[in-house]
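Obj.: predict assembly geometry.
Materials: sequence records (below).
Method: joint structure prediction, all chains together.
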Amino acid sequence: MQARQKDSLLVASVKDSLGAAVITFALACVMVGLRVDVASGRGAELFLEHRWLAVAVAVLIVFAGRLAMNIFFWKREDPPSLNLSGLMPKGGLGANSSNIIKYGLLGLAVVLPFVLMFWLGARGSRQYIDLAILVLTYVMLGWGLNIVVGLAGLLDLGYVAFYAVGAYSYALLAHYFGFSFWLCLPLAGILAAFWGIILGFPVLRLRGDYLAIVTLAFGEIIRVVLLNWYQFTGGPDGLSGIPRPSFFGLEFSRGEGGFASFFGLDYSSIHRIIFLYYLIFAMALFTNFVTMRLRRMPIGRAWEALREDEIACRALGINTTNTKLTAFALGAMFAGFAGSFFATRQGFISPESFTFLESAIILAIVVLGGLGSQIGVVIAAIVMIGGFEFFREFEEYRMLVFGMIMVVIMVWKPRGLISSRTPSVALSKNAKGISADLVQEGHG
Amino acid sequence: MSAQQPLLSIRGVQTFYGKIQALHGVDLDVYEGEIVTLIGANGAGKSTLMMTVCGTPQARNGSVTYCGEDITYKPTYEIMRTGIAQSPEGRRIFPRMTVLENLMMGGMVAGNEHFEEDLRRAFELFPRLKERQQQRGGTLSGGEQQMLAIARALMSRPRLLLLDEPSLGLAPIIVAQIFDAIRELNRTDGLTVFLVEQNAYHALKLAHRGYVMVNGTITMTGTGKELLSREEVKAAYLEGGAH
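Observations (raw structure tokens):
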């Protein structure tokens, strides 16, 4: 009895795996087996290269992998439960451990530049502080997008457009009018919010997929306009010589009147980097602060309700269009802030920096972190951006690893790293976060 | 306003979904302090009528008047701020939000001066909700979700409460509890209730007056008792006896 069962299991598994192998073969024949290349020796002639070995390897890998999965997991009577989820933060991350992570990260972020300086010296720490700035920029963008996608539930695939608006606002205002960074920062935010409203007004009656497509198109429109309006934006050449921010009027320059001489320090280019670090840190914290406050206010609760059920919202007398617009505009505003920071940090911007991939990365950070979770965004940004940079040496495999990490996270934590939602209001003191695991029914 | 003028008055309403006509000229009145029920089979247009009152979809012809004011073409969110509240079909509570948050959403447009008081009243009416106030809406049982939907609607202090099939998919004992609560609201708070139901027996027993809808038109009207004793009603909607 037992043996027969085992036999049929094996047969079924092999059958299934053979099927997969055949499909792989069909696909791999064209996609892997044939390769068009330019012959180097005979001028620029094209020729066809056959790589049947690669096809065979691909087919074998699929067959063996599928067979193993079939036998050990899918077709078994009692599939072993993958307890890897224990390695990840649990859905019902207790309020305590969540707080430890939160304050731990916050403390680390505060002292990070000095620790690095002390450890690696000014020269050695520069690249790491630069990386930290990049991560923080994405944390801020993630938090901004979290308002739109995580709280209000509006899928925005063109978020980078507002980032671009912010960056170009500052660059152009500085270029044509000589405005300073500190003046342009709020202006960039306002302009981005304004564009958010312009985009939002006609499209916010759309839902889900339709909204996503339109926002995607909007993101591309902004980029294409920036690319082609040569006289105004410099087109593909971009804008360079964007002024650096000053520290209460002190430039980070060598010599008299600079930051270093004012404080009696030796001039070092690291001062500006550290200043930029704390600047984006403060901006990100501001984003978080505003979001957390709004979440506890009626408008924030209305966003979340909107994400849950739009029809019910309307039945409760909520003006859904306005509610969506505020979420959209606010998210856009923070992207605008981040954009002007990006411009001042780089000193040079071009449409290259605002491709769809950027939108996708920001969205991935929000989704992997757990929609609506602030701390999740931080962790996801560190993993994604930090990991991405750290694996730079592996050039070719980087995207592979990147993709695999995303798949793994989504398989084990389908609602993101931190999937619990903290209630925005509590009457009793011992209110806990409610784990997503508790409510799977009824609501995808 | 005189007692003779209805609180809600529906006149000759025709509603379409694209080219398909769902309502063929419906007349219906709800007077202050009444419980009025609308019964009918699946797809008769009961929910459509209720949604037309709320403004999604809007009536193509005819008029909806509330408190003497024409609300036919007002946007939904404005209608829902004039003292009408609705517990929609399928309850539509916010599943990831807690019971308390759901209730706060209900009271959002009314402002929060009366929040504590209204909350106490809601918990008095449905003690189960008090026990579960920190629980997510999605984890509640069907009956509790329905209670929550009604309580949420009440948080805006409505004059007219619209209930769309509150008994849907609930055990008889829970249905009885919910209908008791509706009766209690009507008696003590003087709340006017417009109830759309399939559960004709319970609905007609509860209501002062009833309407029967067939294929988008009203075919019968009368007091609850009258309708209950009519042969046509018995045959069509009370088959299988009282349940």
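Conclusions so far: The beta strands of chain A are 34-38, 46-50, 239-240, 348-349.
To do: check interface contacts against the pulldown list.
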